[in-house]
From TrEMBL:
Keywords: Methyltransferase, S-adenosyl-L-methionine, Transferase
GO biological process terms on file: chemotaxis; methylation
PANTHER family, per the entry: CHEMOTAXIS PROTEIN METHYLTRANSFERASE, PROTEIN-GLUTAMATE O-METHYLTRANSFERASE
Annotated Pfam families: CheB_methylest, CheR, CheR_N
EC numbers, comma separated: 2.1.1.80
Matches recorded under InterPro entries: aa-tRNA-synth_II, Bact_Chemotaxis_MeTrfase, CheB_C, CheR_C, CheR_MeTrfase, CheR_N, CheR_N_sf, PAS-like_dom_sf
Domain Aminoacyl-transfer RNA synthetases class-II family profile: 224-643
This protein's name: protein-glutamate O-methyltransferase
GO cellular component: cytoplasm
Length: 714
C-alpha cells in the first residue's frame, strides 16, 4: 500500500464518482477499527473516509499502521478542496470539521471543544446530501450520539447505514438507545461489515445498468399497490395515497438493503418476512417533519391555546402534553419551545412534561440526541435559534433544559395504553396513515386521555367531524379542538384493531346505519320460521336493527343512551338472554332459552328466546338475530271451584316468589360485578398509563446517564 502525503500531486478527476464509505469511530475504538480494516478490500470505484472523535489525542503512527492493513488501497490525508477518488482511504485531520461538496472535501477548523464538535454527524450529513444512494455510513463503537443524525440522513437520502454490534448487546436494548445502532439498517460485528459493503456495491452496479426511474415507476404501479395493501394489512396504516415517486424510492432503498433486484420479488419477500413490513413502514415515515411545521397553526397554538393551558396552574402543579408520531423530535421540541417561552412570562410556573412517542424506535434515537442539520435555520428566527440551540460542527443541538423536558418512548397508539390527565394532545399527520375505522376508535381515546376542556391539535388533512359529541372546534382552520364533557369517562377498549372491541356508541360503524338489504333479507328468512319480533346485533351485542313489536321485550334503563342489547332488554329476560348469547357466540350455533317468564300488566307471559348467528357476506362480519316468541299467558284456576288448587297455588307462588327473589339477587350481583369490572378496568387503564410514563422516564434517565458517561470520558 502506498501512502500519499500532503505533497503528492492532485490526481485527475475520474469520470464516474466513487461509492463513498464514511467510517465514524471514537479514539477508544482502535480494536474495532483494526477488525474492520483487516477485512476491508477496496475497489477502484470505492473510497473510504475515516472520521474520528478527538483524533488529536490518538497516536497517529499506530492509526496508520492499522488502516494500512486494508488490501488494494492508498492512504491519504484530507486537504481542503481535495477531489475524492476511488481506491483510497482518507484520514480526516484532527481538530477540524470535514465535509464533502461537489466531489471535493471541505475542511475548516472546529470552533467547539472536544466532545461538542459533532465531527461524525457533520461529515455523514454532507455525504448523504452529496452522494445519496452512492453513500454508506459505518458507525463503530464509542461514538455516543454522534453519528445518529448522520445515519438517519443517509437513510433519508437512500444510502445505507451500518453500525457495530457489541458482544454484550441485545437488539431489544437498542430500541431505547440514542446511539447510531438504534437506527442503522444493519448491526454487525466490525469484521463482518466489509462483506456487506461489497454485496451492496455489487447490487448498486447492477441497478445502474437497468432502465431509468420514470420507466421503473410506470412498470411498478401494480406492485406498489400490492405493497400498500400488505402494509395496510400488517401495520394498519394506509399508504395508497402516498406520493408514488417517493413511495417507489423508499421501496427501492429497502430493495437495496435486502439485495432484491425485481420489485415483484420484493412483494413476495414483504409478504413472507415477519420484519420487513415494519422496516419499510419506518423508512416511509423518515424525513417528513420539521420545526414549527405550518407556521400559522403554531401561531394560533402559541397565542390562543398555551395561555389557556397555564391558566390556574402554579408551582407544584403539572402541564402534561402528549405528542404522537413525533418521529425525530422536531414537533415535540417546537411545542416545548412555545411552552418554555410562555413559562418565562409567569411569576410561578408549573412543571411541564412532554411525552413524545412514535412507533419507530429508530427515529426516536435521533430525537433523544436532539441534534439537527443546519437547514433548521430556515424554520425559525435567529433569536429563537440562538436561544434554544447550540452550534456543534455542521449541526445544531437542542439545549439541555429543553431536551430534559421531553421524554421520548416507543408507543403504538393502536396497541399500547394511552397517557392520561393531559392538557394537550398533538397528533399531526398521523391519522392520515390510518383507515377510517381505526381513526374512529383513536379519537375517543384522545378524549379519554385529556383533562376536561383541554385541547387536541391535528394536522391539516385531519378532522374530528365524525365525533361532534366529543370535540368542538376552537380554530377549525388550525385544526385545534376542545374536549367536550360527555358526563362519563369510561376508557375506550384497547388494543385497538379493526375487529376487536366495540365501536363507540355515538359513532357506530357506518354500515350500522346503511340499508344493508342482504343482511336484513337473511334475517327475515330466519324470522319467517318463527314469526316473532326480533333484533339484529353485531358481534359485541350492539343493536343494529329493530323489527316491529319489540316494545314489550325492550325496557331502556335510566342513564346514558346505549344500544347494548343486554342493557336494553327487559330485566326478566336478561339472565337467560345473556346465557343464550354467550352459548351462541362460543359455539357459533343456534341457542335457545325456553319458557322464560316475563311480567306484562300483572300477568306472567312465557317467552321463547332464540339466538341465531349469521355471517355478513364476504367481509366475514358475524351478527346475531335474537328472536322473541310469546307463549300463552298463565291464568290461575279459581280456588272456589277446586279447593285443592288453593294449596297448590300458594305453594307454587311461594316457590316462584323465592325463585324470582333469587333471580333478582343474581341479576343484581351480575350488574354489581359488571360495574366493579368497569371500575377495575378504568383503574387498570390509569395504572398502565402510569407505567408507560415511568418506563419513559426510566428510558430518559438511561439516556442521560449515557450522556453523563460520555461527557466524563471526554
Amino acid at each position: 500500500m502506498d501512502e500519499v502525503g500532503k505533497t503528492a500531486e492532485e490526481p485527475e478527476p475520474q469520470a464516474k464518482a466513487p461509492l463513498v464509505i464514511g467510517v465514524g469511530a471514537s479514539t477508544g475504538a482502535l480494536d474495532s477499527i483494526e477488525r474492520f480494516f483487516a477485512k476491508l478490500t477496496l475497489g477502484d470505484d470505492q473510497a473510504v473516509v475515516l472520521v474520528l472523535q478527538n483524533a488529536e489525542v490518538l497516536d497517529d503512527a499506530r492509526l496508520r499502521s492499522i488502516v494500512q492493513r486494508a488490501d488494494s488501497a492508498r492512504l491519504a490525508d484530507i486537504r481542503d478542496a481535495m477531489a475524492v477518488e476511488g481506491g483510497t482511504i482518507y484520514l480526516s485531520p484532527p481538530g477540524m470539521i470535514t465535509t464533502i461538496q461537489d466531489g471535493r472535501f471541505a475542511v475548516r477548523k472546529a470552533e467547539q471543544g472536544p466532545g461538542e464538535r459533532a465531527t461524525i454527524d457533520s461529515f455523514l450529513v454532507s455525504l448523504a446530501e452529496e452522494r445519496a444512494e452512492q453513500s454508506i455510513g459505518v458507525l463503530l463503537s464509542g461514538t455516543g450520539g454522534d453519528g445518529t443524525l448522520g445515519a438517519a440522513t443517509l437513510k433519508d437520502h437512500g444510502g445505507l447505514a451500518i453500525a457495530q454490534r457489541l458482544a454484550s448487546e441485545e437488539s431489544d436494548h437498542l430500541v431505547d438507545s440514542n446511539r447510531p445502532a438504534a437506527i442503522a439498517d444493519y448491526v454487525l460485528p466490525p469484521e463482518d461489515i466489509p462483506e456487506h459493503i461489497q454485496v451492496y456495491a455489487r447490487h448498486l452496479r447492477r441497478l445502474e445498468e437497468k432502465q431509468g426511474f420514470d420507466e421503473v415507476l410506470a412498470a411498478a404501479a401494480t406492485s406498489l399497490s400490492r405493497i400498500a395493501d400488505i402494509l395496510r394489512n400488517k401495520t394498519g396504516n394506509d399508504f395508497h395515497g402516498y406520493k408514488q415517486n417517493t413511495f417507489l424510492r423508499r421501496v427501492q432503498r429497502r430493495m437495496q438493503v435486502v439485495q432484491i433486484e425485481e420489485i415483484t420479488a420484493y412483494v413476495d419477500f414483504l409478504r413472507s418476512d415477519k420484519d420487513e413490513a415494519q422496516n419499510l413502514f419506518n423508512d416511509l415515515l423518515i424525513g417528513v417533519t420539521e420545526f414549527f411545521r405550518d407556521k400559522r397553526e403554531f401561531e394560533v397554538l402559541d397565542t390562543q391555546i398555551i395561555p389557556k393551558i397555564f391558566e390556574g396552574k402554579g408551582s407544584g402543579q403539572q402541564v402534561r402534553v402528549w405528542v404522537l408520531g413525533c418521529a425525530t423530535g422536531e414537533e415535540a421540541y417546537s411545542i416545548g419551545i412555545l411552552l418554555r417561552e410562555h413559562m418565562a412570562t409567569l411569576d410561578s410556573a408549573p412543571q411541564v412534561q412532554i411525552f413524545a412517542t412514535d412507533i419507530d424506535g429508530r427515529a426516536l434515537a435521533t430525537a433523544r440526541v436532539g441534534r439537527y442539520r443546519t437547514n433548521i435555520e430556515q424554520d425559525m428566527s435567529p433569536e429563537r435559534l440562538a436561544r434554544w440551540f447550540v452550534r456543534e460542527g455542521d449541526t445544531y443541538c437542542v439545549v439541555k433544559e429543553l431536551r430534559e423536558m421531553c421524554i421520548f418512548s416507543q408507543h403504538n397508539v393502536i396497541k399500547d395504553a394511552p397517557f392520561s390527565k393531559l392538557d394537550l394532545v398533538s397528533c399531526r399527520n398521523l391519522l392520515i396513515y390510518l383507515n377510517a375505522e381505526l381513526q374512529n376508535r383513536v379519537i375517543p381515546l384522545f378524549h379519554f386521555a385529556l383533562l376536561p376542556e383541554r385541547f387536541l391539535f391535528l394536522g391539516n388533512s385531519e378532522n374530528v367531524t365524525r365525533h361532534p359529541k366529543l370535540f368542538a372546534p376552537v380554530d377549525r382552520r388550525a385544526r385545534i379542538f376542545k374536549k367536550l364533557d360527555t358526563g362519563t369517562r369510561l376508557p375506550p377498549e384497547f388494543p385497538i384493531s379493526t375487529s376487536a372491541g366495540r365501536a363507540p356508541v355515538e359513532v357506530p360503524p357506518v354500515r350500522a346505519f346503511g340499508p344493508d338489504v342482504g343482511l336484513e333479507r337473511r334475517a327475515q328468512r330466519i324470522a319467517e320460521r318463527y314469526a316473532p319480533a326480533y333484533v339484529i346485533t353485531d358481534d359485541n351485542f350492539q343493536i343494529l336493527h329493530f323489527s316491529g313489536r319489540t316494545g314489550r321485550y325492550i325496557e331502556p334503563t335510566a342513564g346514558a343512551a346505549s344500544l347494548d342489547l343486554l342493557q336494553l332488554v327487559h330485566r326478566d329476560l336478561r339472565l337467560e338472554l345473556r346465557t343464550a348469547l354467550s352459548r351462541a357466540s362460543e359455539t357459533n350455533e343456534s341457542a335457545h332459552a325456553e319458557q322464560v317468564q316475563l311480567g306484562v300488566n300483572g300477568h306472567r307471559v312465557l317467552v321463547d328466546i332464540t339466538v341465531e348467528p349469521i355471517l355478513e357476506g364476504a367481509g366475514g362480519h358475524r351478527n346475531f338475530v335474537v328472536l322473541f316468541k310469546d307463549g300463552p299467558a298463565r291464568v290461575a284456576d279459581a280456588p272456589e271451584n277446586n279447593p285443592g288448587v288453593l294449596v297448590r297455588t300458594e305453594h307454587v307462588e311461594r316457590l316462584e316468589g323465592e325463585l324470582r327473589a333469587t333471580r333478582e339477587r343474581l341479576q343484581a350481583t351480575i350488574e354489581e360485578l359488571e360495574s366493579t369490572n368497569e371500575e377495575l378496568k378504568s383503574s387498570n387503564e390509569e395504572y398502565q398509563s402510569l407505567n408507560e410514563e415511568l418506563q419513559s422516564a426510566n428510558e430518559e434517565l438511561e439516556t442521560s446517564r449515557e450522556s453523563c458517561n460520555r461527557s466524563t470520558r471526554n
